Amino acid sequence: MGFNVGIIGCGSITRYRHAPEYKANPFVDQIVFYDRNIERAQSLAAEFGGRVAEKLEDLLMDPTIVAISDCSSNEAHHIYTSKALLSGKHVLCEKPIAMSVKHAEEIARAERKSGKKLMVDHNQRFTKVHQKAKEILEKKELGEVLTFKTTFGHQGPEGWGVTKSNATWFFNKERSPFGVAGDLGIHKIDLIHYLLDDQIEDLHTFHGTLDKVDVRGKPIEVCDNVVSILKTRKGRLGTASFSWTYYGKEDNSTTIYCQKGIIKIYHQDDSQLIIEMNDGSKITYELESIQTNDNQTSTGVIDAFIDCIINDKLPPVTSSEAIASLKVVEKMLGIEVLGTK
């Protein structure tokens, strides 16, 4: 017995991730697409054998739709996700959960009021490599975690978005004020919280617009690079760098330094997880390559979302976890950057 799902927003994230993964899930009968630009919705409905909702209300009021993915741009999440929850739908919201902690808390209130499930798409938790690293850390096979470093950088969202141009909404401060920190950085913050079972509490950050320009050739309004020094609640120290100007190969790597050895994650294509022990011995795992903008593989997010609905489980990424990561991003950029003084 299956059910229908709805998707709000028909950009690249829907086309390459949400729609194909819903289509492949055996519990999903049909996808209903909504976009303010109806032609985009029609195009994806044709591609994935779904149908179109002409108005948002048509999607929200449709009794056959049990769950909705909110793939709208960042400034609309608190509106669409809240409305969908209060309309009795379970919701998978793209990251970041909202443009500010204040807006994210609005969503959390709607979640509590609705009694429906809300999951946030921090998809790095779902890779086999990160899950294996988590298992090793939980068992304390290498002793306690001492320090860490994590990086996420690629050539920028202008090559990924629907328009394939620097007119992308990712460069617009009104629509995506966190810049690279909200696009890539928040994934790694969530990942560090998840892997270390800890929370970033204190930090010092440099951020800047080093190279990206808008359609007029002027520097973009948001940061394209962030470098941060981090301290967690449990006293671990680490560094994080996020970039839209890594003009070679994408870098999505993390290193965890423990008492008895080092865990290297996504440093090598063929051995995605490497354990280097203090005695010089090495263990390598070949699990799966990381998903990149050029290599779209199943994230496992949709399957996990559907599973938590069918089996009435707690979502694997909760709103409170997403808000914890968002708080770190706000702190990184300084609250004044967000215009929420």
UniProtKB/TrEMBL annotation:
Top-level taxon in the UniProt lineage: Bacteria
Residues annotated as domain GFO/IDH/MocA-like oxidoreductase: 130-263
Pfam families: GFO_IDH_MocA (PF01408), GFO_IDH_MocA_C3 (PF22725)
InterPro entries for the chain: Gfo/Idh/MocA-like_OxRdtase_N (IPR000683), Gfo/Idh/MocA_Oxidoreductases (IPR051450), GFO_IDH_MocA-like_dom (IPR055170), NAD(P)-bd_dom_sf (IPR036291)
Molecular function via GO: nucleotide binding
Domain Gfo/Idh/MocA-like oxidoreductase N-terminal: 3-122
The protein, known as: Dehydrogenase
Protein species of origin: Oceanobacillus arenosus
